[in-house]
Write a structure and sequence with these properties.
The protein is an all-beta fold. Helix content is 0%, strand content 28%. InterPro entries: Arrestin-like_C, Arrestin-like_N.
């Protein structure tokens, strides 16, 4: 069954569940990136070309504001061949984009 669409803009709302372990969008790195996009296709009758469009999407994790308060700090203490002793302390093992480390 076919429908004729009059000229104009059309909007179809949809939902897409993404897996929780999906990697965030990563850009502006020298040699690698992770990017995502959605592609929509309007299928047309046999002798007409289908219409495709693509939209870039950004995937960012949003943590609860009190999330970092529940994390433990990371401390590394060691010595190197009895010549140098070092200690690194990081407030948490996680960071957000644009945070200073």
């Amino acid at each position: 069954k076919y429908h004729v669409l009059q000229p104009g803009n059309y909007c179809w709302n949809f939902e897409l569940s993404l897996p929780g372990k999906l990697i965030e969008t990563i850009e502006h790195c020298n040699r690698s990136y992770v990017r995502y996009s959605l592609k929509a296709t309007l299928k047309r009758p046999t002798f007409s070309q289908n219409i495709h469009t693509k939209r870039k999407i950004q995937i960012n994790r949003c943590l609860m504001s009190n999330y970092f308060n529940s994390l433990q700090s990371v401390v590394l203490i060691n010595s190197w061949r009895n010549k140098v002793e070092y200690e690194f302390s990081i407030g948490t093992g996680y960071f957000c984009l644009e945070n200073l480390l």
